[in-house]
Amino acid sequence: MLRTIGVAAAGILLSAALIVLMSFVELHLTSFGEMARDVRKDSPTLRRGERQADPVRLLKESGLRRDLVYQPLIALAVGLLVGAAGRKSVSGVVVVALGPFIVLVVTSDPWVLRGLGFALGYAALALLTAHSLVRWRSRRRGAGTSAHTGMVGAGSA
């Protein structure tokens, strides 16, 4: 029970840390972030109307990167963490570990149903990843030893 709580807490912390990293990358390493910094600084380039790119296009590109790259990677990382540290039943742990992330996804999208759809997709990705890793680990463990006796070559007959 304590291990399950620890894995869920680690998943929550991992998703929070990756959200911060995602925001840092988006604001410091993309053209959208450059535009956002120019707006915040009230730069002379902005006052003269010499924008490099269309802000609406940059906002759409940023949203696509968030929805199709960053957030699926967060769900995949949480699924890998839960699958690597979890036991056989990981469904509840994945749901708890992704809870705050899912709430963020649903509430940050201007269209709630679209956000809900993305959130369900990310949850399915994390669940599939965690279950696959747990199955792979159990098969790998069970290849040389019997699950019941722990002895090499002993069958469960």
Describe this structure in words.
With about 160 residues, the protein is mainly α. It has one domain (about 1-140). Helices cover about 80% and strands about 0% of the residues. Helix 1 runs antiparallel to helix 4 (about 55-85), helix 1 (about 1-30) runs parallel beside helix 5 (about 90-110) and helix 5 packs antiparallel against helix 6. The longest helix has about 30 residues, at about 55-85. The chain is elongated. Mean pLDDT is about 85; it is low at about 155.
Q: Give the number of domains.
A: 1
N-to-C order of helices and strands = HHHHHH
Sheet with the most strands, sense and barrel status: none
Helix content: over 70%
* Classification by helices and strands: mainly alpha
Briefly characterize the structure.
The protein has 157 residues and is mainly alpha-helical. The protein is built from six helices and no strands.
Please give the structural blueprint:
Blueprint: H1 2-28, H2 31-41, H3 44-47, H4 55-85, H5 91-108, H6 112-142
Helix pairs in contact: 1-4, 1-5, 4-5, 4-6, 5-6
Short key terms for the protein model shown above:
single chain; 157 residues; elongated; 78% helix; mainly alpha
